[in-house]
Amino acid sequence: MNHLGKAPLIFGLLFLLAFPVIVFRGDDRSDTLEFWIFAQTHYDEFSARIPAFEAAHPGVKVELRLISKLHDKLLAAFLSGIGGPDLSEVEISSVGRFFKGTKEEIGFVDLTDRIEREGITDEFVQARLAPWSLDGRIYGLPRDVHPVMLLYRHDVYEKAGIDPASIETWDDFVRETRPLARDDDGDGRPDQYPIMLSAHKPGHFWLMLLQNGGGMFDEDGGVIIDNDIAVSTLEFYCSLLNEEQLAIPEFSQDPASYAAMKEGIILGVLAPDWYISFARRFVPELEGKWRAMPLPAWQEGERRTSTWGGTMIAVTRQAENPDLAWEFAKFAYMDDEALANRYRKTFIIPPIRSAWSNPVYTEPEAYLDGQVLGRSLTELAPDIPGFHLNPYWAEANDLLRQAVYEAANGIRTPADALSHLAEQVRALRNNTTETE
Amino acid sequence: MKPRYAPYFFLAPFFALFGVFMVYPLFDSIRLSTYSVRGMQNQTFVGLENIERLIADPLFWTALWNTAYFAAGSLLLQLPVALALALLLSNARLKGRNLFRLSFFSPVLISGVFIAVIFYLLYDRRYGLVNRVLGSEIQWLQDPDLVMPALVLAGVWRWAGFNMVYFLAGLQSIRQELYEAAAVDGAGPWQSFVHVTIPALKPVIAFVVITSMIGSFQLFDLPYVLTEGGPGNASMTMVMYLYKHGFEFINLGYAATIGWALAVIIGVISIIQVRLFGVFREN
Question: Which residues of B118-128 are buried (b: 16+ CB within 10 A; e: fewer)?
């Protein structure tokens, strides 16, 4: 070993020196904002705008990080108490896991007072604050509204003599579009479907349930997923898939669904704003053939939209300078021109009403045969339904998937599937209460 | 510095990291499995309640069954395929065999998520290559009876080439004289395979069987991306179920219990396999 000389000692010392440097970042980072995001499109948007924030705040540096599996890593940072960012985006399907336990345990800064102090509470579509709120306290700024419309093949409607204006309710939709579900090849299945509804994933059912005024929990945390609204919504949903055969059951947002659209197998899609930009990107061949109409209402005169998806920006409790982080959150999410640019690329409507006066929202959209999509979306946006988050949201949402699958595939009746689901969610609550 | 201390200095970083990132979490997870965890900090001691809950949890048994199905499928399908490939590609007369070896090995270089996306497209009912070739309209990923076989096939595609490399190495170490002696005794190709190749490959087969079994029981990325555990829970695996409880529901205590149940199951199966193969037996 003599030939090794002092190498082992040097390596040992280097390790001992490096270890604390890696584990404990001793530098003052109060002028640095670490911001975690999960989507490349968000990265592109913010990386272009961050220099403007840094120029307006001399000495401040914003470190933008595109994180894969962001929600898992953010959760690990909250559980361990170290390693988290100053700000983070959170996607709506993952938000439930961050609202476990008591209010003191939530890893995000309560922004309610700051929003009120700024006098911007009423600026937001109120229903859009709900997914990021618990017990009346708001923990994040919404990035979007995601109003849902019905994307339909207006060329096919025109050929079949269907007037979209005559479709005001879901019953109208069934009556008017039934002739479109033709079985020309005689295999017992339609060759084209007026709508796409998943028989395996709950997304489409969930947005229809919200539109109908239903949900998983009421504002007091009571389980309402087995009430009459939910049962009748799921019965209707299943009838479109099975008895009526108006809905193609196999797709959700699969790449193959775009191929089916190109081939004219899918004639209608429940489409939030972002989805319409997906269609423009992945099915460019259908430019000019689609148009978007408000969702058919459940009863005449009732709500004609819903909501699907969403993202918030939150300041974490690990932020060294929460005031600076809050300034950045406002800059990131509330700049009119940036929001208008985003609309051009993604059709995403901002949740701030004052931003809707920007002329971009009155531009005709070639992909939709010149329809002024922005106007339609902003007219529907104030009417989107909200829903009530609670600490059992993540588990309940997971169980919903199973219930929709069982009902849509005839394993249980809709009423039975939902009553079983509600039973499980109630048991979940009771177990938790007992343990506590 | 005295030379006798040198190895300890070299080993110190490993043991420090191993202690912090393996030994401590391992023991802490035993403690955690006796707690009910709600929220970020709220932990309540519940003793063996998590184990009772696990035994009564039908979804755990579904996940265990699915995982065992995948492991059995891997063993019965993947390993014979790997061995057959190795035998084919060890033939010196085969032209371009290095290219074939690389081709069969290459799936293991691709991330599991990407493989899942590829198979998502391959298995599509209307547009997937599999149905096009078969001339069928089978719903591979939406039929609860077919989703696990579909995952096993994807697993074969991913891992058979990797295990083939072990078998190739094993085949190359078999002395040619043994085959010659067998031929002199009148053995045909099949008898040579059964009486020379298989016994000589026994240590390699044991290694591949045991590591494949352990890997199969840890299956996560393929079903997580390909099916999300569906349809229903027809492709839910144990690690997916653990992940759900640990990272989606923040039931860390229950997740730790599932983790230990998995470790015990893998441990027992591995011990049985080690005994059956006589891995540590002299000669």
Answer: bbbebbbbbbb
